[in-house]
Amino acid sequence: MQSQSHRLFFALWPGDDLRHAIDLTSVRLEREFTPGGRRLDAARFHLTLQFLGDFLPVPEAPAPEALIDNARAAAAQVIALPFELTLDCAGSFRGSRVWWLGTGTPAPGLHHLWQVLGDALEQHGVPTRSAAGFSPHLTIQRNARRHLAETMPVAPLNWTVRDFVLVDSQSCHPYRIIGRWPLQA
Predict the structure, then answer these.
(1) Phi/psi-derived region of residue 7, left when phi > 0, alpha when psi is between -120 and 50, beta in every other case
(2) Backbone phi, then psi, for 50, in 5-degree steps?
(3) 103 falls within a domain
(4) Which domain holds residue 66?
(5) Entry pTM
(6) C-beta neighbour count of 122 within 10 angstroms
(7) pLDDT tens-digit profile of 17-57?
(8) Which one, of 120, 89, 110, lies nearest residue 162 by Cα?
(9) Domain-embedded: residue 79
(10) Which segments of the chain does DSSP mark as H helices, in order?
(11) pLDDT (tens digit, 9 = 90+) per residue, 68-117?
């Protein structure tokens, strides 16, 4: 039997009502633009903050426990206030078969959280594999055969971000939240 890899990342995790609204927006875009890909299940919606990497488990440990412990310690020291985020545009990345929802207006609270979490991870010796810059997006479609020519507006979806999570992802399994941290002063 082959071991499945674990993908670990910190993310913003929408509540059920927002997940439903995102799903409805995704369905509308799919009907209108027929991307020919695979719409993500609403249970998988998230906005990645910091990507820690893919890890093959060893028999005695399903994921690298020392790394997870250090990541948890880093997350616990993050100081950031809750903030408002509005998902109000859809797009796709060039050279990628991914469609996403994002924000057309800067969200200073989001960038602050990304930065202080990245700094805390570095201080705790947790390497990240995130891109050099931060392109906040929430994936809604994979394997799209059509590229969206430009970013387009969608009906605004308002999100009050009050916490962030550490997620363990394995193929063909539901995401598993292995830690949650509230945003507070």
Answers:
(1) beta
(2) -140, 130
(3) yes
(4) 6-182
(5) 0.90
(6) 12
(7) 999 999 999 999 999 988 888 999 999 999 999 999 888 76
(8) 110
(9) yes
(10) 16-33, 65-76, 108-123
(11) 999 999 999 999 999 999 999 999 987 788 999 999 988 999 999 999 99
